Amino acid sequence: MSETAKLIFGDKTIEMPVITGSEGEKALDISRLRGDTGLITMDDGYMNTGSCTSNVTFLDGEKGILRYRGYPIEQLAEKATFLEVSYLLIYGELPDKEQFEIFRNNVVRHTMIHEDLKRLYDGFPKDSHPMAILSSMICTLSGYYNDSSDPLNPRHREISMTRLLSKTPTIAAYSHKKSIGQPFVYPRNSLSYVGNFLNMMFSVPAEDYEVDPLVEKALDLLLILHADHEQNCSTSTVRLVGSSRANLYATIASGICALWGPLHGGANQAVIDMLEIIRDEGGDVNKFVQLAKDKNSTFRLMGFGHRVYKNFDPRAVIIKKACDDVLRKMGKQDPLLDIARKLEEAALTDSYFVDRKLYPNVDFYSGIIYRAIGIPTEMFTVMFAMGRMPGWIAQWKEMIENPNTKIGRPRQVFTGAQSRNYVEMGKR
Ligand code: CMC
Fold this sequence. Notes:
7% strand; globular; 18 helices; single chain; binds carboxymethyl coenzyme *A; 3-stranded antiparallel beta sheet; mainly alpha
């Protein structure tokens, strides 16, 4: 017999079905709540609210578990490539050789952007944030593919998903080139997904550029670790906007905007900004730990804390190790890494952070790797967006292909003025 829960309100008792997920998570199905009782639920920040059922990504914040389609993040990080993981997220299974080749060829064939689109970069000031450029350009793609962006058409869906995966690195690299005044470098389809991005970022017509396999691998790993994270702020935005049946380019552009905020993906840039301030002020990490605890200050330790992880962030564990490896193999030292380590140690031994279960998250060490491989700080959140692309796409695909999907439309409890009569301006 299926489980139910009872709610007593006034003289009414209603029974609500309990939904159980494949990992044993339970949820109350409140879909009849308003109809039966007139009540709605209130849940600031959706801390207790499930917005969908999903087969894509599982995470257990208490145990520090993260799995894409059932595969532990640790295994994927060690053995898979980002494109393979993209296929897994979008289509649900790891590709065999033939499936992967077809997928890779499709992605590779769409890496160029329309020449007219390149002219749009001229309209941005030199110091535009690359996230402003990325979100605008991704949304603008819809103008170029008007004839093939109907979310209800399976063929249109396929081509839109492929174009987004293919063109995001090109658009991202061009935004960097624009900011430093260098010519755009066309994609090279003989290179790997990440190799092609690095070539577009760092090569110049004046000299040869060779992709460093160490850098290629490090970046591929970072993209895998960012590829999906179930119903976070940007993914929920993607699902909400997509539920209105907006085209995929507009939908993903909204996710990119949500990611930009410093409490979400923008934290990776904010971490480096914070570490630089600590360095410039003499390196006293304890001062900043105290400041983060001060309720009169708005300062927070960036890269610390997570809505879901209350034990450790498994991505942060992998990144911390990769950070040490990459810097050692590249023979680089970064004083910010020492400050980050000291800051982590100081916070993890402080009862404020221990009691609130605040641990380093994915953004705490990722910036140190990006710096080591030459990615400028303003580009960090763009890198996150590149990594998250297959996750957004997979979640959108799952949502749009579900015949039960309804437009997302929360309710509210109104607390403003009650009905009153309009007063002419002269009499106010
Ligand atoms: N530094 C200092 N105090 C913190 C921090 C922090 N980084 N994070 C949380 N707290 C405190 C917060 O003040 C609150 O204290 P109290 O109970 O005394 O009021 C308590 O911990 C709970 O915090 P919250 O803000 O209610 O928790 P949340 O789940 O709403 O927020 C968070 C999660 C990630 C937004 C938050 O931890 C934060 O602002 N962290 C810094 C920004 C950051 O690193 N974001 C990246 C998140 S991971 C990547 C991603 O998802 O994009």
